[in-house]
Structures are given as structure tokens and as C-alpha cells.
Design brief:
Distance between the termini: 42 Å
Largest sheet: 6 strands, mixed
Structural class: alpha+beta
Strand content: 15-25%
Shape: elongated
Number of helices: 10
Number of strands: 21
Length: 409
């Protein structure tokens, strides 16, 4: 955690400290405390010090593993009964012991905790500006290395996915239809009643989105990372940017693979998208891919300190608009064309500040952002290419080493 930035942010407010009541699933809590507590706990930042209040069960681990300067347990306040009023009495005493009579709390913090502290004389100010998300948007060198490491794992998973596609046969072309096993090969996969010509086949069975996702997840586990879900969407499914994809994959169609894992050790995310085609892409698909690659290059060129997220988004939009494709910038209601922002920050959350979109603010050294233009049309499918970059003092560094190519090789 960058305490200097947090001190500067707090100094501009009337609060004595910043208080969070949440579990490790809240990225602000994890950032402030450095503790992976599965149940909600309190963390107070005041006078340049981190104070954490945990249960007796978590006390030993919090003392050893958290970033807190002071770790206290419920028993230190005589709280053992489970009584709600006594719990809130403990919370108020903990805040005062930390040197605070007024605290900022996140805009989505527990209402019960805020009201109870107010009832006990603690001034609670809702942090409408969500200062902590702004503070953690600028990454330290250590955080950037953590993201870089996760990105290497991400690229290993993407390579494993591409390997399946590279070694896939095509039903009715390189492998006879009658030679394909149509039975389920992975639990939960849909069966196909008949193997259609053009379906991708791997090891004698129809290759599905589910099978590719399984390989991605297993590869990530082997690299110390995991993810709740990923995107492997082919054909018309790829025309919806957040369609996770399901069922058989086909030759000569775009297959969008978007992987956004999280390191089990550091908790930092990475994010990358590639669009592949097995076989021969149509002229329209190839044209859209080349246009998206040009939009990616234009957006990357705009990533530098002093430019805004809106500048980066505009650079990508202009490439598409000049080629006659609609964007949200020209038509906010369009369902075709470039129908999302150009990117977002990444860190303890997979989506965080800054935004590369209309209204996106100024970029600073240490911001880590995705750059991911795309084109979408159900008649053609979807195309998206996404790199992960860090803003530097004089431009940016691309953390992504995976090649950009349409035809899986």
C-alpha cells in the first residue's frame, strides 16, 4: 500500500481516519489491511498507522501476515457474547483507540456499522469520491511486478488454449464425420446429436468452449492462479462481448478467448484477449481483425501520462469511425460495431480505475490498464484484441508478450 498517497488523500478531508468493515473479497479492505480474512473485519487507517480488529480465530494469522501496525482481537475489548450492541460498542472503542473521532467509510460499507458508530458519537462521513480506489489505481513497483507475474501465467493459459485450436481437425475435411465421437467428453458439456461438417475436432471428439476453458483453468492452477470464469466464445456468440461461450466450436469463424486470472499468492489480476480462427477467415473477418489491430495500435500510442482515458478511447474510436463502423461515441444505442469502452484499470479488482472511456480521467505513471478495442456483429461474429500496459513517466510499457495473430498456428 502506498501510504503517502493515502495520507495526501485523507488530508484533503475532515476525517481523522478511514474505516472499512468488510472481508478480503473487498479489494479496498485487502489493500488497506494486507490480510486475507474470509469473514468481515475492521481496519482503520489513522495517523499514518493501520489498525486491524479481528476475531480470536484470526488473531495469530493477522499478526503474522497482515500489513497492520496494530492487530487487536475481540477479546481485548471483552467481547465474547455475540450481542450486537456490545459488538458495536467494541467497534466504537476500537476507532477511538486508533485516535479517530471521525472516519471516512466506503460508499458501499455496511449501513448498520455506520449508524451504530454515529449513535456512539463517532462522526461517519460517506466517501462519495471513493478515495481509496483512486489511491490504489496508481501501482507501486511491487504491485506492477505482481501483475506482470500473473500476466505470464495468463499467457501460458492462452498458449494452452491456442494449442488445442492448432491441433484441432475439421469434421468433414481433415477428419471424416463418422470418425468423430459425439459423446460427452467433459461433464456438463452439451451433446451434439449429429456431427456437422465444419465442427472442430480434437482427439476424436468435438472441441467445445467448455473443453478449452477446462484447459485454461488447469493451466492457471499449475501457475498458482485461478479464475471464476473465462470467455471462450465462437461465431455469433463472440458478437456479445460478455457472452462466456458454450458448445461446439467451428472452423472459419472467430473464437474470442478472454482470460482474466488472479494470483492465489498476491491476489493481483491480469487480463488478455485474443481472437483466433481455425481454417480460412472470410475477407470480412480478416478486414475487421486488421482494423481492430490498427485500433489497438492507435490506442496504445495514446497511452502516456498527461493524456486522459478519454483520449485513448477516442484514438480507438476514430479508427473504427473512419472505416464507417458505429461506436458508442457516435451512437450510444448501437448494438453493432465498437460497443464498449477501450479499457479499464486492473489490480486487486479485475475492473478498477482508471477508465479508458468517454469521461476517463488523466493517466498517471503507475496506472495499469487494459487496452481492448473490438468489433461486433452477429452476422460475422466478434473480434477483440486486448493487451495489458503500465503507464510510465514517458509513455507506457506493454506487459503483454503474447503475439497478435488471427489464424491459430
Amino acid at each position: 500500500m502506498d501510504r503517502t498517497r493515502l495520507d495526501d488523500a485523507l488530508s484533503a478531508t475532515d476525517a481523522d481516519g478511514y474505516l472499512i468493515d468488510a472481508s478480503q473479497d473487498d479489494a479496498n479492505q485487502l489493500y488497506l489491511s494486507g490480510f486475507t480474512g474470509p469473514d468481515p473485519f475492521l481496519t482503520l487507517y489513522a495517523d499514518g498507522r493501520v489498525h486491524t480488529l479481528v476475531s480470536g480465530l484470526e488473531y495469530g494469522r493477522a499478526t503474522a501476515e497482515s500489513d497492520a501496525d496494530v492487530v487487536e482481537r475481540h477479546a481485548d475489548y471483552g467481547y465474547t457474547s455475540g450481542d450486537t450492541a456490545e459488538r458495536y460498542d467494541m467497534y466504537a472503542a476500537f476507532v477511538r483507540d486508533g485516535g479517530a473521532e471521525s472516519v471516512l467509510v466506503p460508499p458501499r460499507g455496511p449501513v448498520g456499522t455506520a449508524d451504530a458508530l454515529r449513535d456512539r458519537g463517532i462522526e461517519v462521513i460517506v466517501d462519495d469520491a471513493d478515495l481509496l480506489t483512486t489511491v490504489r489505481a496508481v501501482k507501486t513497483d511491487e504491485e506492477i511486478e505482481a501483475i506482470r507475474d500473473t500476466q505470464r501465467a495468463n499467457e501460458a493459459a492462452m498458449a494452452a488454449a491456442e494449442e488445442l485450436l492448432v491441433h484441432a481437425d475439421v469434421a468433414g475435411e481433415s477428419v471424416p464425420v463418422e470418425a468423430v465421437d459425439i459423446a460427452d467428453t467433459t461433464e456438463g458439456e452439451p451433446t451434439v446429436e449429429a456431427v456437422e461438417p465444419g465442427l472442430l475436432v480434437h482427439d476424436g471428439a468435438v472441441l467445445t468452449s467448455e473443453r478449452v476453458k477446462e484447459v485454461i483453468e488447469l493451466t492457471l492452477l499449475g501457475h498458482g492462479c485461478a479464475l471464476d470464469e473465462t470467455i471462450v466464445a465462437g461465431g455469433s456468440q463472440a458478437a456479445d462481448p460478455h457472452d462466456r461461450g458454450s458448445g461446439p466450436l467451428r472452423a472459419n469463424e472467430p473464437i474470442v478467448i478472454d482470460i482474466f486470472p488472479r494470483s492465489k499468492a498476491t491476489k493481483y489480476h491480469a487480463d488478455m484477449t485474443r481472437t483466433f480462427c481455425v481454417g480460412e477467415p472470410s475477407g470480412e473477418l480478416r478486414e475487421r481483425y486488421e482494423l481492430t489491430e490498427a485500433a489497438l495500435d492507435a490506442a496504445l500510442d495514446a497511452v502516456e501520462p498527461g493524456n486522459t482515458g478519454e483520449d485513448v478511447h477516442a484514438a480507438a474510436c476514430e479508427v473504427y469511425e473512419d472505416a464507417g463502423h458505429p461506436t458508442f461515441r457516435t451512437d450510444p444505442k448501437t448494438e453493432l460495431g465498437f460497443i464498449h469502452s477501450t479499457g479499464h484499470g486492473i489490480g486487486l479488482d479485475v475492473h478498477e480505475l482508471p477508465r479508458l472511456a468517454t469521461g476517463g480521467g488523466e493517466l498517471e505513471p503507475g496506472h495499469v490498464v487494459t487496452v481492448e478495442p473490438g468489433l461486433y456483429d452477429p452476422a460475422v461474429g466478434g473480434v477483440r484484441i486486448e493487451d495489458l500496459v503500465v503507464v510510465t513517466a514517458d509513455g507506457h510499457e506493454n506487459l503483454t508478450e503474447f503475439p497478435v495473430e488471427l489464424v491459430a498456428r
